[in-house]
Design goal:
Elements (H helix, E strand, L loop, with lengths): L3 H20 L16 H26 L6 H15 L1 H10 L4 H29 L4 H6 L3 H17 L3 H16 L4 H6 L2
């Protein structure tokens, strides 16, 4: 089957996830800058999660650009990814509302970890469907950055039990690694 419906559905789900996140930002009562101070952690967690969702949307787009079609396994692998991404508004809100307390930061990391694993599974499912010599397989290669990201998430989750701010720094580090779009697929498509 063609990939168009999968792309459109995924775009819609990610747009809804971002909408849910922004609707969770509550307007403070008052008309001075002091009323904004308690919202700083909430806003920081929102910005970080917005960046993560943008990264996933961008890379998902590139991933599907490199394939011709999808199959049933791909549809389920994509649903698996969207499930983990759909939990981002909850953990974002919980983490921000609780000033980056240990357990919310741990759960935020768990969601990021499983989203990373789900993206890896989606990638491998598409490669399996299109073959080891496909444009996608050649572009993804060994996917060192993806594997390193999952390892950093795991370390950050453990570190959150010691210092939740250090764990958040690692979450920011992974986002920074992916902020510049992955050009591997675009390079292979233009060859």
């Amino acid at each position: 089957m063609g990939k168009g419906r999968l792309e459109a559905f995924s775009d819609g789900v990610i747009a809804i996830i971002i909408t849910i996140m922004v609707l969770e930002l509550k307007v403070p009562h008052g008309d001075n800058f002091a009323v904004l101070r308690p919202l700083i952690p909430v806003f920081f967690s929102y910005v970080l999660s917005f960046i993560y969702l943008g990264i996933y949307w961008n890379n998902h787009h590139h991933l599907l650009q490199a394939v011709r079609q999808v199959n049933g396994s791909t549809l389920w692998a994509n649903q698996h990814l969207l499930f983990w991404l759909s939990l981002i508004p909850f953990v974002t809100g919980w983490m921000g509302e609780n000033n980056f307390a240990t357990i919310p930061v741990v759960l935020y990391g768990v969601v990021l970890l499983f989203a990373g694993v789900a993206y890896f599974i989606l990638t491998r499912t598409l490669i399996s469907h299109h073959g080891k010599d496909s444009t996608l397989a050649i572009a993804v290669g060994k996917d060192i950055k993806g594997k390193v990201s999952v390892i950093i998430y795991f370390v950050a989750i453990l570190l959150a039990f010691v210092n939740s701010w250090l764990a958040c720094i690692l979450y920011v580090l992974v986002a920074a690694m992916w902020l510049i779009p992955d050009r591997r697929i675009e390079k292979n498509l233009t060859k």
